[in-house]
Amino acid sequence: MSRLNRKWWTVVAFVTFCMVVLIAAMLLNANKTDNNITPVAETSAVQTTPTAGMPLKVGSAYTPVAKNERISLAVNAAGQLRLTDHLGGHDWFSNPSEEALRSETVKGFWRNSLESPFMIDYIDLNGISTEVITANAKDLETSVSFHQMKDGVEIVFDLSKVQIRFSYLVKLADDHLEVEVPYDRISETGSAKVVSISVMPLFGAMQGLTNTGYMFVPDGVGALIPFDPTTKYSSQYTSKMYGSDISAIDYEKEKVSRYNQEIPADSLYPVFGIVSGNQAFVSIIDEGEYTSRISATPGGMYTSFNWVAAQFVYRQGYFKRTNLFGEGFHVFQENMMKEDRRILYYFLSGEDADYVGMAKAYRQYLMDKNGLARREDAAYPLDLYLMGGDQKPALLGRELVAATTFEQAGQIVQSLKESGVESLDVTLMGWEKNGYLQNTPGRFPPSKALGGTEGLSRLAGRVHESGGKLYLSDNFNVAFGANDGFEPKYDAVRDLNGKVISVELPGLQKYWIHPDLSREMLFESFGDFRLLGIDGLYHTGLGEAVFSDETPSHLTSRKRTGAIFGDMLRETAEQLGEARVKHGNAYVLPYADHIGSIPFDTSYDMLTAKTVPFYLIALHGLVSYSGIPQNMQDEPRISYLKSIEYGALPSYLLTFEDPIVLKDTLSRWIYSSQFKEWKEQVAAQYTEREKSLGRLSNQMIVNHRELAKDVFETTYENGTKVIVNYTKKPYVADSVSVEPENYSVVEKEGRS
Known about the structure:
Transmembrane segments: 7-28
CATH class of the largest domain: Alpha Beta
Shape: globular
Helix content: 10-25%
Keywords: Membrane, Transmembrane, Transmembrane helix
Oligomer: single chain
Strand content: 25-35%
CATH architecture of the largest domain: Alpha-Beta Barrel
Number of domains: 3
Radius of gyration: 28 Å
Number of helices: 12
CATH superfamily of the largest domain: Glycosidases
CATH topology of the largest domain: TIM Barrel
Largest sheet: 11 strands, antiparallel
Pfam families: DUF5696
């Protein structure tokens, strides 16, 4: 509902409500049974679109159905696939081969699952319980039929036991395999309802006893789970793509470590794969990623096979409340989410069969499918964040605490310039009229206590005179209280219970704004932003979390929210110059000029034994990025070295005043930030890095490896190698020496 003419619309809504109540009462009375119980309407069945191709006869042996110069595709009567990679000379199977299964000892459900082309979770509405049931093809008495397609085949699975039907559209592209699950091919004609489908979960599954390798999962910037036949695991690795949907969880019970932080995403990008010897495959979820999960199951847990797969969620589960005391029960959405799902499989061999080769394949995908282009400039700026002000509780309401005025920010910029920092990207936080996000969606004019509109405009001028750029940090996803025309009952996101989602903070209430309204508010603000002379915005919400809105009047899926966020970033760049984002979920990549605070660490899941910079290998040379500011991390020296290993820009978050002044504000997570304490180190480290690494900023990373324990080498396309030594001992090898907890740059000719 528009924020305009609210009172008029309220009157109309009230009159309409009264009419609806009256009509409903009349209908209710007319439809009552003799027992005074209102009959429950039956849920209509989901019907499929008929298959388009001619029927294809397939026997128990693999039958060829498509071929190109790179790949051949064959299927058998069970709906299993065999892919022959002509370049690598290797056969890939959607399920373990008969030869591999001979040594498998598991029986029953998991044995049948090893031979199943899918795993399905469903609920039975006619059952005693609505618990989720996990099943495979044999469990559900599945019949399989085939229909010809251009460059492939449609495989139809008819799960007769539960009256569910769906299809795989399997086809070859020039250099990869595509497997699509169209929404309009799914039917539910009985009481069973689909919760999720795992597509070809055993594709490329490998036994650790006979193969060496690892599973790659999108945990943090990348993580490996090695094949280890000697270890017994009690759980799978599972991640939700782009994190949890706040509309489908009991948000009040969600633990958030910092008052003003979003729930971090579990996976930033929809990629997974397996490496075995000198062969590998990498899978990219091309469609349906917003409602997907990725799971990796180590050998020895259920079977002897290691496997990693995508699970597509069709109905979200949530806790349905039945009273004001928080009591209720777990249920699932009534209707399926209407989205097609598609996975792409790329096959790698030889030197490309590792996580670096996977990252290169993903990089090419981003360029071909998402329109990312190589960076032309080789700029290497200091990525500097300055906190302006925040509010703390006071005797009469709240009062602003100034950590850095606009004048003081100008002094910091000038001082760094005089200390040798020639290129500077300044992002100002807490510039709003009441400080850091305190009055959003109201933000203008800039805080008078910090210097007001004129002070901020002067700061922009000083930054430009120093050769730098000025950006304002903002979050158009959230609101703190009802202000500036924002009314939660109309404008806030609602969960699947129909309840407004909010989090109670000290003295404040935090809400999420309906995505369409967020976009409207941003677009209305461009004129005010332009008057300040800034170079763009740093969006802290758009790249961190994507959510659905279950408000009946404007239902919004996560996919549509992601598209709206893309519109906001695109228009920001068009109107102001640059669109920068925090965190960097993959849906922002086509629009982001820079990504800040990419999480370098993994989730520390017990299975993810090794962190690798997969995501950053894919991005370097396409989009600039930085990690969480170095001085905001527990081990600044280690984070400094990691940013060098990963090809990130140097990043700091500073204040002019001692950050102790923020201890009673929402920004109390800022510590060790006073400029005078960090000035010399910031200037010295930046000038050193710019001299040795600056020319690499637009180069693509072509290799990454561990030379020795805790010694890593990153190689760029111009032949330059950067060696980082995290140990407390010197590293010496092949005429290269790296001091303890330091790094060395080796030119192509061998000079260091």
